[in-house]
Design goal:
The protein is mainly β. It contains two helices and twelve strands; from the N terminus they run αββββββββββββα. Strands 1-2-3-4-5-6-7-8-9-10-11-12 form a twelve-stranded antiparallel barrel.
Length: about 200
């Protein structure tokens, strides 16, 4: 499978985008016994109008996360291989899952987390990553790079004169024309998965 299959041009509506798209990310809330609780792992991505765009849910096994669209259709199955590696799968027209990308955590310190992302293509021995993810999960700061170009960024929503900026909601900005938005969201899910501190 060539990497053009997940390039933005495969989605016509996205290919027409000329401006960055913002999503706002929060933990997914759920009703439990009449009270509202916040999921430890599931995320919600809404657009600037407040419309749901993406959600995540648990997969059939503990090490799998599912990325869904607003209609609960599965977009990606994200499988954690070990503490540092993930694989992303998409279903073809026949419902068969195909490997789309591999990610490898290459740095994980208090101040910095970094992943290399390899899009699956004919060159199984590729050594250079197609994408890089760098950031600081605690501060909700993450940047996805394609070469020297910025594909997407996350950041807290600072307001003038705010002494305290809550971390329970942050902004994801996806820049146009580089990578499909669903792939970007899948990588954000991987980057923040398992983070215990979510105030």
């Amino acid at each position: 499978m060539g990497d053009t299959e997940i390039h933005i041009s495969q989605w016509d509506s996205e290919a027409e985008d000329k401006i960055p798209i913002d999503y706002f990310v929060t933990r997914q809330k759920k009703n439990k016994g009449g009270s509202v609780t916040v999921s430890k792992r599931n995320l919600r991505f809404v657009d600037a109008s407040g419309n749901l765009a993406f959600t995540t849910s648990s997969g059939p096994v503990k090490t799998t996360r599912l990325l869904l669209d607003a209609s609960a259709n599965q977009l990606f199955s994200l499988r954690r291989i070990n503490s540092k590696s993930w694989q992303g799968f998409m279903r073809d027209a026949n419902g068969v899952e195909e490997l789309i990308f591999r990610s490898q955590k290459i740095q994980d310190t208090f101040n910095k987390t970094e992943f290399d992302v390899f899009l699956v293509n004919e060159d199984c021995e590729q050594s250079s990553p197609d994408l890089k993810i760098k950031g600081h999960p605690f501060h909700r700061a993450c940047t996805i790079y394609k070469g020297n170009s910025i594909v997407a960024q996350t950041n807290l929503m600072y307001k003038l004169w705010d002494a305290y900026v809550p971390r329970n909601k942050f902004r994801l900005t996806v820049f146009p024309g580089l990578v499909n938005r669903a792939l970007v969201v899948a990588l954000i899910v991987i980057f923040f998965d398992g983070r215990k501190i979510w105030l």
